[in-house]
Amino acid sequence: MDTLWQDFQFAVRMMRKNLGFTTAAVLCLMLGIGATTGIFTVVNAVLLQPLPYSHPEQLIRVYTEFPTFPNGGLHRFWTSGPEFLDLRRDTHSWASLDAWITGGANLAGKTQPVRVTAAYLSGGLLETLAVAPVAGRLISQTDDVPGSQMVADISYGTWQSVFAGDPNVVGRETHLDGLKCTIIGVMPKGFQFPPGEQEPAQIWTALRLDPANPGNRGGHNYYLLGRMRRGVTAGQAQGELASLVQSYGEKQVPKTHSFHPKTHTIVSFPLQAEVVSSVRPALLMLLGAVVFVLLIASVNVANLLLARAEARRREIAIRGALGAGLVRLARQFVTEGILLGFCGAVLGVALSFGGVRLVQLTNAGGIPRADEISMDWRVLLFTLGITLITGVLFGLAPLAPLLVSGISESLKDTAGSTTAASGAQIFRRILVGGELAMALVLLIGCGLMLRAFWKLQEIHTGLNAENVLTMRVSLPTGTYTDNAKITGFWTRLHERLTNLPGVRSVALVSGLAPVRPPNMNDTQIEGFVQQPGAPFMQNVDFYQVVSKGYFAAMEIRLIDGRLFDERDTHEAPDVAIVNNYRYVNLVSLLAWTTVLIAVAAGRLSLARLAAIFASGYVLCDVIFYLPMAQLAGEHLAFDQFLILAVQAGYAIFLPSLSDRRWQKTT
Q1: Close Cβ partners of 521 (under 8 Å, ≥ 6 residues apart)
Q2: What is the pTM assigned to this prediction?
């Protein structure tokens, strides 16, 4: 211990004696260790830590798929109500199987209504997660009965922000989308379900799916989550699902929607893998990149130590001649290296803490589980490990020439020599070559990413989003039940916004594709003949219900036909507009004069093809546009997006929906 203390004191004296060298080395290590620690903090929280549920390894996401669908098939698709009920009835490998959907909802707060993200889930789902509320109880099977009183659990954040942390909030009656709802519980701080969403759920209420009327078997709307029974593996659970699909396929009635081993299958994946699947490759790539940065920083410090060792060659040789062996010298240099490493690690941890905090503040839903990112003992242990490893490695660098020539030869080399020994020069050249190679790898990777980003910026999406404002508005379904009131509200709002100074165009649209979930609805097209290489137009990716000003507001170019106008009323013949999908043969498309709209408008009707657009959303496939004026009022009661195209430099004052207050939007 005395010898170690002497080595430590000597290392401190050497660092103080060479402040310029010490500052340069510590700054290099700070950047390398800080970047590595910061990225590992994110990787640890997002990829390595289990989800904060009871036995999360037993939780499995269940999807339906259509493998034979054109363009590679439909994968990880939703499940319909009848399919969910069949699976819950017929499976035996699962302790529970539950369904949920999410959507926007209006919640009557303590002083004013707020817009929240609501999750509608089957009664046993929260109990499956086994997360205890901080107050009240969880939604149970008894709450998930058609016609029962609506109840809800709220998030901790909603409790604090909407109800001001009211200690008597449990049992309080409120209104959710205009319907009376009783708050029965408050979830713990940080709880999320479904996890990893860009807009986390703030309130959970019972789905209340009616087994007697579960909806259309082809209407896929629900996500499924199952918990495997103890002792059942994921492979066994998937095997049971495959057996059920085979059994359902054998019993399939012709021309009906049913599971089939070839055309409509079921797949399952661990919940945690699904939550982080979108970011796993990117995070691992970043972790690899910062490890290269750490190696480059270590090589830089090793070169600095090697250069300083040249000035200390006579000292090292004399100490060796006096009896200090390589082990004793190695211990001294390792002590100096580790001390430098710890100084850099302290500053690096502070740097990484600020970087992680910046990631959380600017995340905007891009990284799932971002709220769980924190520096715990695992991160500190990782930092300690890389500090010791790098400290030992670059600390031993000055001894490399001695291993080649020996201490006695080093003493001879120092006699009258003012240049570095040949062994030291060779070793430094090796370090510089390795450093340049690693830096070149990083530069090439960075250049490729910048080039890909630049190419993405050059892609024309088919619309102009400059000086365009969007906002989401939803009417409470429990209040606006009369079609005339619903239509009247949107009409008045449209007129008032159109008359605002600085507004060039106003439009209403049912969703912002491709950000919103696709419809993927089967659609019968009269006289349609599938062309080789053309898309499967019998299934439409997006049904967009738009007002007549939508195409002008987004500056979407017309290829043929006409726009929606005053002729397209509820009493007039139905019309539709289709986008110019990149594989569509325009000649054959122009021949499609009528389309049988089976589901989008909630009624069977023949829609005459009004126009063809070179509209974009290059990430989308087939988009059918339907005129809002031809739809009944109840189809406008759900989420609607307002689009305002404004003149540059204008500050727009928007009236609140209650007509009692004004809100500024720029």
Answers
A1: 539, 540, 543, 598, 599, 600
A2: 0.75
